[in-house]
Amino acid sequence: MDISGTLALAQDEAAIRAALARYCRGIDRGDPVLIASAYWPEAEDHHGVFDGNAHEFARWIVPHLAKEYTLTQHLLGQSLIQMSGPDAAAVETYFSSRHGHARNGVRMVEMVSGRYIDRFARRAGEWRIADRLLIVDFVFDVPHPKSIVEDIPGSIFGCRGQEDASYGLFTAQQG
C-alpha cells in the first residue's frame, strides 16, 4: 500500500473510532441525539434488552438507563477494523462499562465487559454504524462504598445531561 492508501486507511479508521466515541459519550451523558449520530437512520441494534432500529434504541435507552442506574461509564478498548470494500467495514470493539445502582440500600457498581460487533458503512464521506450486535463476555456486581473523595470540597463529578461539565467545553468549541 502506498502512502496515500495508508493515509486514507488511517483517516477511515479515525472516523470509525470517532463514531464509536460519540456513541459512548451519548450513552453516558444521556444524549439520544448524540447516540443516534453514530448510526445510519435504518441501522439495527441487537443489544439484548433491545432489538430493533438503532434510532429507536437511542430514544429508548436514555430513560431506561436513568430508571435503572445512577450513572454509567463506557470505556472503549481495541478495535479490529477490517475494510470490506471502499465504503464498508467490519469492526469488533472491546468495551468495559460501569453502571451505578443500589440494591437493598447498598450502593453497587455493575461491571460489564464485552464487544460491539459492528458493520459500518460510509456514505457521502461519513462513517456510521449500519448494524450492531452486543456480545457480553463478563458481568458482575461489586459494592461501592462512599469514598472520602466524595467529601472533598470543589470536587466535580460526572452527571447525565448538559449539566455535565464537559458540555461547556464542547459547546464552546462548536461556537
What's the helix and strand layout?
Layout: H1 3-29, H2 32-36, E1 39-46, E2 51-53, H3 54-68, E3 71-83, E4 88-103, E5 106-123, E6 126-143, H4 166-174
Parallel strand pairs: 1-6
Antiparallel strand pairs: 1-2, 3-4, 4-5, 5-6
Domain SnoaL-like: 10-132
Protein name: SnoaL-like domain-containing protein
InterPro entries: NTF2-like_dom_sf, SnoaL-like
Summarize the structure.
The protein is an alpha+beta fold and 175 residues long.
Question: What features would you describe in this structure?
Answer:
It comes from Sphingobium baderi LL03. InterPro entries: NTF2-like_dom_sf (IPR032710), SnoaL-like (IPR037401). Residues 10-132 form the SnoaL-like domain. By secondary structure, the chain is of the alpha+beta class. It has one domain (3-174): Nuclear Transport Factor 2, Chain: A. Helices cover 32% and strands 43% of the residues. The protein is built from four helices and six strands, in the order H-H-E-E-H-E-E-E-E-H. The protein has helices at residues 3-29, 32-36, 54-68, 166-174; strands spanning 39-46, 51-53, 71-83, 88-103, 106-123, 126-143. The protein has a six-stranded mixed sheet with strand order 2-1-6-5-4-3, covered by helices on one side. The longest helix has 27 residues, at 3-29. The radius of gyration is 18 Å and the shape is globular. The relative contact order is 0.16.
